[in-house]
Amino acid sequence: MTALQELFLKELEAVTSTTALRELRSRYTGKNGVITGELKKLPTLAPHERAAFGKQVNTDKVFIEERFKEYEQVLISKEIKSKLSKDPVDITLPGYYKKPGGRHPVTIVLAEIADIFVSMGFSIEEGPEVESDYYNFSALNIPQNHPARDMQDTFYIETGGQSGEGAFVLRTHTSPVQIRVMEKRVNESRTNGTPLPPLRFIAPGKVYRCDSDISHCPMFHQVEGLVVDKNISFANLKGLLEGFLRKVFGPSVPVRLRPSFFPFTEPSAEVDMGCYFCKGGGCRVCKGTGWIEIMGAGMVDPRVFKNVGYDTGQYSGFAFGMGIERIASLKYGIDDIRLYYEGDLRFLRQF
User: Fold this and answer.
1) Where in the sequence is the domain holding 79, given as residue range(s)?
2) In the prediction, which pLDDT does 164 show?
3) Fewer CB atoms < 10 Å away: N or C end of the chain?
Protein backbone atom coordinates (compact mmCIF):
# COMPACT_ATOMS: atom_id res chain seq x y z
CA MET A 1 0.00 0.00 0.00
CA THR A 2 1.38 3.38 -0.97
CA ALA A 3 1.80 6.33 1.39
CA LEU A 4 -0.98 8.18 -0.44
CA GLN A 5 -3.39 5.28 0.00
CA GLU A 6 -2.56 5.02 3.74
CA LEU A 7 -3.10 8.76 4.22
CA PHE A 8 -6.40 8.57 2.38
CA LEU A 9 -7.68 5.64 4.49
CA LYS A 10 -6.87 7.50 7.73
CA GLU A 11 -8.86 10.50 6.55
CA LEU A 12 -11.69 8.27 5.31
CA GLU A 13 -12.06 6.68 8.76
CA ALA A 14 -12.77 10.11 10.23
CA VAL A 15 -15.67 10.75 7.83
CA THR A 16 -19.11 10.32 9.42
CA SER A 17 -21.54 11.80 6.87
CA THR A 18 -22.18 11.80 3.14
CA THR A 19 -21.56 15.56 3.08
CA ALA A 20 -18.08 15.13 4.54
CA LEU A 21 -17.49 12.25 2.12
CA ARG A 22 -18.25 14.49 -0.86
CA GLU A 23 -15.80 17.08 0.43
CA LEU A 24 -13.08 14.43 0.83
CA ARG A 25 -13.77 13.10 -2.66
CA SER A 26 -13.42 16.58 -4.11
CA ARG A 27 -10.14 17.07 -2.24
CA TYR A 28 -8.65 13.86 -3.68
CA THR A 29 -10.22 13.36 -7.12
CA GLY A 30 -11.55 16.84 -7.95
CA LYS A 31 -10.26 19.16 -10.65
CA ASN A 32 -7.68 20.66 -8.27
CA GLY A 33 -7.38 17.60 -6.02
CA VAL A 34 -4.46 15.50 -4.80
CA ILE A 35 -4.52 13.11 -7.79
CA THR A 36 -4.41 16.00 -10.25
CA GLY A 37 -1.52 17.49 -8.29
CA GLU A 38 0.41 14.24 -8.53
CA LEU A 39 -0.11 14.05 -12.30
CA LYS A 40 1.23 17.58 -12.68
CA LYS A 41 4.58 16.32 -11.37
CA LEU A 42 5.10 14.17 -14.48
CA PRO A 43 6.82 16.88 -16.59
CA THR A 44 9.39 17.43 -13.82
CA LEU A 45 10.51 13.77 -13.78
CA ALA A 46 13.17 12.14 -15.88
CA PRO A 47 11.76 10.42 -18.97
CA HIS A 48 12.59 6.91 -17.70
CA GLU A 49 10.70 7.60 -14.43
CA ARG A 50 7.46 8.90 -15.90
CA ALA A 51 5.87 5.58 -16.94
CA ALA A 52 6.22 3.98 -13.51
CA PHE A 53 5.13 7.14 -11.71
CA GLY A 54 2.05 7.60 -13.94
CA LYS A 55 1.08 3.95 -13.48
CA GLN A 56 1.31 4.30 -9.69
CA VAL A 57 -0.82 7.47 -9.67
CA ASN A 58 -3.52 5.73 -11.73
CA THR A 59 -3.42 2.77 -9.32
CA ASP A 60 -3.89 5.18 -6.38
CA LYS A 61 -6.78 6.86 -8.21
CA VAL A 62 -8.61 3.56 -8.83
CA PHE A 63 -8.03 2.49 -5.21
CA ILE A 64 -9.41 5.78 -3.85
CA GLU A 65 -12.47 5.79 -6.13
CA GLU A 66 -13.35 2.19 -5.18
CA ARG A 67 -13.07 2.98 -1.44
CA PHE A 68 -15.30 6.02 -1.97
CA LYS A 69 -18.03 3.90 -3.59
CA GLU A 70 -17.90 1.27 -0.84
CA TYR A 71 -17.92 3.75 2.03
CA GLU A 72 -20.66 5.85 0.46
CA GLN A 73 -23.07 2.89 0.56
CA VAL A 74 -22.14 2.28 4.22
CA LEU A 75 -22.85 5.90 5.15
CA ILE A 76 -26.13 6.02 3.23
CA SER A 77 -27.32 2.87 4.99
CA LYS A 78 -26.37 4.33 8.39
CA GLU A 79 -28.16 7.62 7.66
CA ILE A 80 -31.33 5.82 6.58
CA LYS A 81 -31.34 3.68 9.73
CA SER A 82 -30.74 6.75 11.90
CA LYS A 83 -33.60 8.63 10.27
CA LEU A 84 -35.98 5.68 10.64
CA SER A 85 -35.11 5.27 14.31
CA LYS A 86 -35.94 8.93 14.97
CA ASP A 87 -38.99 9.11 12.70
CA PRO A 88 -40.37 5.58 12.28
CA VAL A 89 -42.64 4.79 9.36
CA ASP A 90 -45.80 2.78 9.91
CA ILE A 91 -45.99 0.69 6.76
CA THR A 92 -49.55 -0.37 7.63
CA LEU A 93 -50.85 3.16 7.00
CA PRO A 94 -52.41 3.84 3.56
CA GLY A 95 -50.16 5.68 1.14
CA TYR A 96 -50.74 9.15 -0.26
CA TYR A 97 -52.34 9.06 -3.71
CA LYS A 98 -51.08 11.66 -6.13
CA LYS A 99 -53.26 12.12 -9.17
CA PRO A 100 -51.24 12.01 -12.38
CA GLY A 101 -51.21 15.06 -14.60
CA GLY A 102 -52.91 15.10 -17.96
CA ARG A 103 -52.63 16.81 -21.30
CA HIS A 104 -54.51 20.03 -21.99
CA PRO A 105 -57.41 19.62 -24.46
CA VAL A 106 -55.70 22.00 -26.90
CA THR A 107 -52.56 19.85 -26.74
CA ILE A 108 -54.61 16.68 -27.30
CA VAL A 109 -56.35 18.06 -30.39
CA LEU A 110 -53.18 19.62 -31.80
CA ALA A 111 -51.37 16.28 -31.50
CA GLU A 112 -54.27 14.52 -33.24
CA ILE A 113 -54.26 17.06 -36.08
CA ALA A 114 -50.50 16.78 -36.50
CA ASP A 115 -50.67 12.96 -36.57
CA ILE A 116 -53.33 13.04 -39.29
CA PHE A 117 -51.39 15.39 -41.56
CA VAL A 118 -48.06 13.63 -40.96
CA SER A 119 -49.78 10.40 -42.03
CA MET A 120 -50.69 12.23 -45.27
CA GLY A 121 -47.04 13.09 -45.94
CA PHE A 122 -46.93 16.57 -44.40
CA SER A 123 -43.97 17.91 -42.44
CA ILE A 124 -44.26 20.35 -39.52
CA GLU A 125 -42.72 23.83 -39.67
CA GLU A 126 -42.52 26.64 -37.12
CA GLY A 127 -41.90 30.38 -37.16
CA PRO A 128 -41.50 33.31 -34.75
CA GLU A 129 -44.47 34.65 -32.81
CA VAL A 130 -43.16 38.23 -33.11
CA GLU A 131 -43.28 38.94 -36.84
CA SER A 132 -42.42 41.84 -39.10
CA ASP A 133 -45.24 43.66 -40.83
CA TYR A 134 -43.84 42.36 -44.11
CA TYR A 135 -44.22 38.66 -43.32
CA ASN A 136 -47.52 39.05 -41.46
CA PHE A 137 -49.18 41.26 -44.07
CA SER A 138 -47.33 42.57 -47.13
CA ALA A 139 -45.83 39.28 -48.37
CA LEU A 140 -49.30 37.73 -48.05
CA ASN A 141 -50.81 40.25 -50.46
CA ILE A 142 -52.07 42.57 -47.70
CA PRO A 143 -50.32 45.86 -48.51
CA GLN A 144 -50.43 49.01 -46.41
CA ASN A 145 -53.95 50.51 -46.17
CA HIS A 146 -55.48 47.41 -47.72
CA PRO A 147 -59.03 46.93 -46.37
CA ALA A 148 -58.20 43.32 -45.53
CA ARG A 149 -56.11 44.58 -42.59
CA ASP A 150 -59.38 45.59 -40.93
CA MET A 151 -60.26 41.89 -40.70
CA GLN A 152 -57.67 41.42 -37.98
CA ASP A 153 -57.10 43.63 -34.94
CA THR A 154 -53.36 43.53 -34.47
CA PHE A 155 -51.01 43.91 -31.49
CA TYR A 156 -48.23 46.19 -32.76
CA ILE A 157 -44.86 46.04 -31.03
CA GLU A 158 -43.52 49.31 -32.43
CA THR A 159 -43.99 52.39 -30.20
CA GLY A 160 -47.16 54.20 -31.11
CA GLY A 161 -48.85 51.14 -32.52
CA GLN A 162 -48.53 52.25 -36.13
CA SER A 163 -48.46 49.77 -38.97
CA GLY A 164 -45.88 49.90 -41.72
CA GLU A 165 -43.08 47.95 -43.36
CA GLY A 166 -40.75 48.57 -40.40
CA ALA A 167 -43.25 47.61 -37.70
CA PHE A 168 -43.30 44.39 -35.72
CA VAL A 169 -46.44 42.62 -34.59
CA LEU A 170 -47.58 39.63 -32.57
CA ARG A 171 -48.50 37.45 -35.52
CA THR A 172 -52.22 37.37 -36.27
CA HIS A 173 -52.03 34.01 -38.04
CA THR A 174 -49.46 31.30 -38.75
CA SER A 175 -49.55 32.12 -42.48
CA PRO A 176 -46.19 33.99 -42.30
CA VAL A 177 -44.56 30.58 -41.89
CA GLN A 178 -45.49 29.68 -45.46
CA ILE A 179 -43.60 32.74 -46.73
CA ARG A 180 -40.55 31.93 -44.62
CA VAL A 181 -40.47 28.28 -45.73
CA MET A 182 -40.86 29.14 -49.42
CA GLU A 183 -38.12 31.78 -49.15
CA LYS A 184 -35.85 29.28 -47.38
CA ARG A 185 -36.40 26.78 -50.20
CA VAL A 186 -35.53 29.46 -52.79
CA ASN A 187 -32.26 30.27 -50.96
CA GLU A 188 -31.38 26.58 -50.68
CA SER A 189 -32.09 26.13 -54.39
CA ARG A 190 -29.71 28.95 -55.25
CA THR A 191 -26.89 27.66 -53.06
CA ASN A 192 -27.03 23.89 -53.49
CA GLY A 193 -29.60 23.19 -56.18
CA THR A 194 -32.38 21.97 -53.86
CA PRO A 195 -35.64 21.74 -55.87
CA LEU A 196 -38.31 24.31 -54.99
CA PRO A 197 -41.63 22.45 -54.72
CA PRO A 198 -43.03 20.04 -53.90
CA LEU A 199 -43.89 21.55 -50.53
CA ARG A 200 -46.33 19.98 -48.12
CA PHE A 201 -46.33 21.12 -44.49
CA ILE A 202 -48.43 22.39 -41.61
CA ALA A 203 -47.46 25.24 -39.30
CA PRO A 204 -49.09 25.03 -35.85
CA GLY A 205 -48.60 27.73 -33.24
CA LYS A 206 -49.92 30.57 -31.11
CA VAL A 207 -51.46 33.67 -32.71
CA TYR A 208 -52.66 36.96 -31.24
CA ARG A 209 -55.55 39.33 -31.93
CA CYS A 210 -57.22 42.16 -30.01
CA ASP A 211 -60.37 40.22 -29.32
CA SER A 212 -61.88 38.71 -26.17
CA ASP A 213 -65.32 37.26 -25.54
CA ILE A 214 -67.06 33.91 -25.09
CA SER A 215 -65.84 32.67 -28.48
CA HIS A 216 -62.64 34.69 -28.98
CA CYS A 217 -59.40 35.05 -27.05
CA PRO A 218 -56.43 37.48 -27.40
CA MET A 219 -54.14 34.44 -27.72
CA PHE A 220 -55.20 31.21 -29.39
CA HIS A 221 -53.77 28.44 -31.59
CA GLN A 222 -53.91 27.92 -35.33
CA VAL A 223 -52.71 25.35 -37.82
CA GLU A 224 -51.78 26.66 -41.25
CA GLY A 225 -51.29 24.21 -44.10
CA LEU A 226 -49.59 24.68 -47.46
CA VAL A 227 -49.22 22.42 -50.49
CA VAL A 228 -47.27 23.58 -53.57
CA ASP A 229 -46.42 21.55 -56.66
CA LYS A 230 -47.17 21.32 -60.35
CA ASN A 231 -50.80 20.83 -61.37
CA ILE A 232 -52.30 21.35 -57.89
CA SER A 233 -56.04 22.01 -58.19
CA PHE A 234 -58.97 23.09 -56.05
CA ALA A 235 -60.20 19.51 -56.23
CA ASN A 236 -57.01 18.40 -54.43
CA LEU A 237 -57.77 20.91 -51.68
CA LYS A 238 -61.37 19.76 -51.29
CA GLY A 239 -60.42 16.09 -51.17
CA LEU A 240 -57.70 16.68 -48.58
CA LEU A 241 -59.93 18.70 -46.24
CA GLU A 242 -62.82 16.27 -46.52
CA GLY A 243 -60.49 13.42 -45.61
CA PHE A 244 -59.07 15.36 -42.66
CA LEU A 245 -62.45 16.36 -41.19
CA ARG A 246 -63.81 12.84 -41.49
CA LYS A 247 -60.82 11.47 -39.61
CA VAL A 248 -61.43 13.98 -36.81
CA PHE A 249 -65.23 13.95 -36.61
CA GLY A 250 -66.21 10.64 -38.17
CA PRO A 251 -66.55 9.16 -41.66
CA SER A 252 -70.13 10.32 -42.20
CA VAL A 253 -69.72 14.05 -41.47
CA PRO A 254 -70.85 16.12 -44.48
CA VAL A 255 -68.48 18.84 -45.75
CA ARG A 256 -69.17 21.83 -47.99
CA LEU A 257 -67.17 24.77 -49.32
CA ARG A 258 -68.65 28.27 -49.68
CA PRO A 259 -67.11 31.11 -51.72
CA SER A 260 -65.30 33.62 -49.53
CA PHE A 261 -62.43 36.13 -49.58
CA PHE A 262 -58.89 35.96 -48.22
CA PRO A 263 -56.18 38.28 -49.55
CA PHE A 264 -53.60 35.50 -49.93
CA THR A 265 -55.79 32.94 -51.73
CA GLU A 266 -57.82 33.13 -54.94
CA PRO A 267 -60.32 31.57 -55.25
CA SER A 268 -61.06 31.34 -51.52
CA ALA A 269 -63.61 29.34 -49.55
CA GLU A 270 -65.04 28.89 -46.09
CA VAL A 271 -65.17 25.23 -45.14
CA ASP A 272 -68.28 24.04 -43.29
CA MET A 273 -69.10 20.66 -41.83
CA GLY A 274 -72.42 19.23 -40.75
CA CYS A 275 -73.25 20.22 -37.16
CA TYR A 276 -71.58 17.76 -34.81
CA PHE A 277 -74.32 18.20 -32.21
CA CYS A 278 -77.65 18.15 -34.05
CA LYS A 279 -76.46 16.10 -37.07
CA GLY A 280 -77.88 18.71 -39.43
CA GLY A 281 -81.26 19.12 -37.73
CA GLY A 282 -80.58 22.65 -36.50
CA CYS A 283 -79.60 23.71 -32.96
CA ARG A 284 -78.23 26.62 -30.90
CA VAL A 285 -74.61 25.79 -31.81
CA CYS A 286 -75.17 25.92 -35.58
CA LYS A 287 -77.82 28.69 -35.24
CA GLY A 288 -80.42 26.46 -36.84
CA THR A 289 -78.52 26.02 -40.13
CA GLY A 290 -77.23 22.48 -39.60
CA TRP A 291 -73.72 23.64 -40.61
CA ILE A 292 -70.68 24.87 -38.66
CA GLU A 293 -67.87 26.94 -40.16
CA ILE A 294 -64.61 25.12 -39.38
CA MET A 295 -61.79 26.74 -41.41
CA GLY A 296 -60.76 28.93 -44.32
CA ALA A 297 -58.93 27.75 -47.44
CA GLY A 298 -58.15 28.52 -51.04
CA MET A 299 -55.67 28.43 -53.92
CA VAL A 300 -52.51 30.45 -53.24
CA ASP A 301 -52.75 33.86 -54.89
CA PRO A 302 -50.14 34.28 -57.69
CA ARG A 303 -48.96 37.52 -56.04
CA VAL A 304 -47.86 35.51 -53.00
CA PHE A 305 -45.81 33.21 -55.22
CA LYS A 306 -44.21 36.21 -56.94
CA ASN A 307 -43.22 37.68 -53.56
CA VAL A 308 -41.09 34.58 -52.84
CA GLY A 309 -39.78 34.10 -56.37
CA TYR A 310 -41.89 31.15 -57.54
CA ASP A 311 -42.81 30.77 -61.21
CA THR A 312 -46.61 31.13 -61.26
CA GLY A 313 -46.74 29.57 -64.71
CA GLN A 314 -45.11 26.40 -63.39
CA TYR A 315 -46.37 26.01 -59.83
CA SER A 316 -49.72 26.18 -58.08
CA GLY A 317 -50.81 25.39 -54.56
CA PHE A 318 -53.39 25.72 -51.85
CA ALA A 319 -53.44 26.86 -48.26
CA PHE A 320 -55.81 26.34 -45.35
CA GLY A 321 -56.01 27.47 -41.75
CA MET A 322 -58.03 26.42 -38.71
CA GLY A 323 -58.34 27.32 -35.04
CA ILE A 324 -57.36 24.51 -32.66
CA GLU A 325 -59.66 25.75 -29.89
CA ARG A 326 -62.60 25.73 -32.30
CA ILE A 327 -62.04 22.11 -33.25
CA ALA A 328 -61.52 21.13 -29.60
CA SER A 329 -64.75 22.92 -28.64
CA LEU A 330 -66.70 20.98 -31.24
CA LYS A 331 -65.13 17.65 -30.27
CA TYR A 332 -65.70 18.10 -26.53
CA GLY A 333 -68.81 20.31 -26.48
CA ILE A 334 -67.07 23.32 -24.88
CA ASP A 335 -69.09 26.51 -25.23
CA ASP A 336 -66.68 29.10 -23.75
CA ILE A 337 -63.12 29.49 -25.11
CA ARG A 338 -62.03 31.17 -21.86
CA LEU A 339 -62.23 27.82 -20.07
CA TYR A 340 -59.07 26.73 -21.88
CA TYR A 341 -56.94 29.35 -20.13
CA GLU A 342 -58.49 29.86 -16.70
CA GLY A 343 -56.67 26.88 -15.18
CA ASP A 344 -59.81 25.52 -13.48
CA LEU A 345 -58.91 21.99 -12.34
CA ARG A 346 -62.56 20.90 -12.51
CA PHE A 347 -62.42 21.59 -16.23
CA LEU A 348 -58.94 20.21 -16.91
CA ARG A 349 -59.52 16.94 -15.00
CA GLN A 350 -62.10 15.93 -17.59
CA PHE A 351 -59.28 15.33 -20.06
Assistant:
1) 3-86
2) 58
3) N
